[in-house]
Amino acid sequence: MATVPAPELLADHLGNPKPRQDTTLTYEEARLGVAFHEAGHAVLAMTYGFPVVSSEVIAWDMGQGGWGLTGNTVIGSGEVHAWRYAAMCAAGELANVRYLLVHGLWTPDRAAEITAEHDRALAVDMLAAHGFSLGHDHVPAAGKSWGQVRGMAARKVDRLWREIRTVAHAMNESTKLTGEQIAAMTGLTNAPMAGGAV
């Protein structure tokens, strides 16, 4: 495990610190869960045509036997397809939940531990910047609800589970994967970069 990562890797898209959450999982279980979370983002991004730069698990030693975990998936900028972008944001948490279920680790408390409200907030703000309405707990006029977007993402996570699982285990072993590595191991196509990374 490395030292504490740069503050921007521990912050949300607005620069606010992501909430810290204790877990009842072991380090190995939690680390693999983060890998599934990031793999969910990366695989859906690639499937939807967003160029993937990299996806990684970030772990660090907090001293006295404690550890911290987070992840980061970087996609290239380009034309934003609103609902696909939002589904890509939702896919991380959904992939992590499925990992817990498949491995017999799911409990209501653990599901609450991996809630990724920062991903929902990112989707809401990004879509709003492009003139689309994404509601947290309702369907806005001419928009969609987070529940609808999660439904889109859940269907994709189900269909792409083999690819997500492959990427998650490789990321857990290697810590960081490039978009090219993810494309090679899944058979998916990584779209060419149309600009900078976001």
Question: Could you characterize what this model shows?
Answer:
- It is a single chain.
- It is globular and about 50 Å long.
- The protein has helices at residues 27-47, 82-102, 108-113, 117-129, 146-159, 161-174, 179-186; strands spanning 52-63, 66-75, 134-135, 144-145, 176-178.
- The chain has 198 residues and is α+β, with helices and mostly antiparallel strands.
- Helix 1 (27-47) runs antiparallel to helix 2.
- Helices cover 49% and strands 15% of the residues.
What's the topology here?
Elements: H1 27-47, E1 52-63, E2 66-75, H2 82-102, H3 108-113, H4 117-129, E3 134-135, E4 144-145, H5 146-159, H6 161-174, E5 176-178, H7 179-186
Parallel strand pairs: 3-4
Antiparallel strand pairs: 1-2, 1-5
Helix pairs in contact: 1-2, 1-6, 2-4, 2-5
